Amino acid sequence: MARKEKTKSNLLAKCRGWIQAGATLLTNIHLPNFLKGEIYKGKGKTVCVPGLNCYSCPAASGACPIGSFQAIVGSSKFKFSYYITGFLILLGVLFGRFICGFLCPFGWFQELLHKIPTKKFSTKKLKPLTYVKYFVLLFFVVLLPILVVNDVGMGDPFFCKYLCPQGVLEGAIPLSAVNAGIRSALGVLFSWKLTILLIVIALSVLFYRPFCKWICPLGALYALLNKVSLFQMKVDKNKCISCGKCAYACKMDVDVTKAPNHTECIRCGMCVKACPTNAISYRYGFGDGKQNCKLNKEMENKKDEKTN
Amino acid sequence: MKMSNSKKIVVQVVLLVVGVAMLFYGIYRGEAAAVLSKAIKLCLECVGIG
After folding, report:
1. How far is CA A20 from CA A66, A101, A105, A112, A191, in A?
2. Ranges of chain B whose pLDDT falls below 50
3. ipTM topping 0.85
4. Is A175's Cβ below 8 Å from some Cβ in B?
5. From A53, which residue of chain B is nearest by alpha-carbon distance?
6. Residue closest to A60 by CA, chosen among A100, A91, A105, A98
7. How confident is the model over A212-226, as pLDDT tens digits?
8. Quick one: which of A144, A149, B18, B26 could link to B31 by a disulfide (CB 3.0–4.6 Å)?
9. What is the average pLDDT across A86-111?
10. Chains A, B: CB contacts under 8 A, how many?
């Protein structure tokens, strides 16, 4: 049974690139709109997509959860979005940061950039920057759109307007390429956002997923729910030989043996592939699982015996 | 700090129930329609027009 589960985990980790490509395609299924220079206007956009994907992308099949949240809280009618918050809590508990690792188009974009053969840099010494994304979530996504309002009580979507590079990558660039009206309307704000996009692109070549690690408010929200998500990492302590290969392989700077469901773990499965003893696998379900509980109790008993 | 297994299950179930309840309450008060009306128009802030 354990052998079979391990095979499934390895297979999932190995197929990740294809799953990311498929998820990006499904998130942006209306491809002919790129040529028309207009966005999809169907009812599919009532539902949010799980990853960071601009709803002004011509091909976008759903709404962006971060953009939608800001649109609702920044409107004069509503001051909080139960719909988006509930949706994100549900997704966060069901999948956690598996969404970042497998389903987010912008995460995949950064990973593809990181494959460009250049010198790569570690982000281990930049760990304090991982807290910036919580600040972005709190201030740019929640507080500023609620508190900074115009005469009719409407707030700007501050994150989308000033920070998010997805709008330029998926919206402004393809739309302005075929639509002269949009091209002529681009100004200083576009230049600012294009600069952010270019910085993110340059950093992504050098560092692994810098936007996900440091800036993404959606990643921050899923990170908060990662410890209680049903999709989790499992480490069999009887099989683990403490070789450290998993921690070395992890590009999100997580030691899975110490914190299997760390806030920064995007379930990418690099540790699963690196483990020489098949001690690491994926697990889906409530709690820690019967096997894990039994093992933990055994380990605690062993510790007690040693101390006595 | 590690959460006990039973406590973790309780937190997961409570969050799932809260998530579903919030989702349906949001739909009930018309947020889904507001999301649709925003998403089918070009987001000027997102693309950098302002």
Report:
1. 20, 8, 7, 11, 29
2. none
3. yes
4. yes
5. B46
6. A105
7. 999 999 999 999 999
8. B26
9. 97
10. 173
